[in-house]
Amino acid sequence: MARSAGVVSNYQFRIHFMQLRIAEILRILPHRYPFLLVDRVIEVDPDKRIVAIKNVSINEPFFNGHFPGAPVMPGVLTVESMAQAGAILGLLDRKPEELHNTLVYFMGIDEARFRRPIVPGDQMIITVEVLRRKSVVWKMRGQVHVGGDLVAEATLLSSIGQQP
Length: 164
Hints:
Elements: E1 2-4, E2 7-9, E3 14-16, H1 22-28, E4 40-45, E5 49-55, H2 75-91, H3 96-99, E6 102-114, E7 123-134, E8 137-146, E9 149-162
């Protein structure tokens, strides 16, 4: 296997080990604290797959009410973290001037499953794979793992559009 310029390749596959830190993520996504749910991107196979991280802290504002004394990350925010990772993948090849008015909108969520609660101290490994892409509509499969265990999954449908 040969390694050059951030690309590992052999004769059967090619994966880009692109990492995005928070500054780059903030340039791509319009989301801001407390609703930004991706801390880092650790792997990208352009137009196919992305792997991102969300570090879950007790300081997250939703833990105050969900649930007092037994904090659990809301399932809808777990799905949102998958959607945000997918949005990064969908917008990654856009020029900075194109990102200014561009948003990724949810069109559907199917087959969402939550296998165990996500709690403070967990590190979410978010993997999103493109199932189908037609123009600006993307169908993706998202999974969240914590400590090697699958904790959540969903099929997401989204559309890339302009701000109203």
